[in-house]
Fold this sequence. Notes:
The chain has 154 residues and is α+β, with helices and mostly antiparallel strands. The protein contains 4 helices and 8 strands, in the order αααββββαββββ. Helix content is 27%, strand content 35%. The longest helix is centred in the middle third of the chain and has 20 residues.
Amino acid sequence: MSDAAPSTPAKLDIKLILQKAIELNDFGYLLAHVPYAKFIGMKVERFGDELVFKLPAKDDNIGNPVLPALHGGVIAGFMEMSAIVQLMVFMQTPKVPKIVDFSIDYLRAGYHKDSFAECIITRQGRRVANVSINCWQTNRKQMIATARAHFLIE
């Protein structure tokens, strides 16, 4: 029996991953390093200075099989992760922003189809950033959820 400590996974260098994603102009590269984003199937596309996040229809994300509708926690996690990536990309943070507060309003059922989110950084201070997140499926004007989040940034 070995007395050696169990091996720990190598620590990810967030700054290098973010720099490479910016160089490649492929923020999917950043999401590929986030286990939860991979688990729910999250994707991102850049259109000029805007990022649009996509949550493809996936059976594992269903919370109500009768409708079928997405699980509310999946919608909230998708929106929170979108806000974190938005902050990391546009503020080029060397660390992952820490969530301080997250408030979500579910407006209608999120059916088993592709969902999208966009984030607006409403206030950016030296230590705290506020982000507004909108999530929709077929029409941006018919949101399925909207959220506000506050993050501690370093």
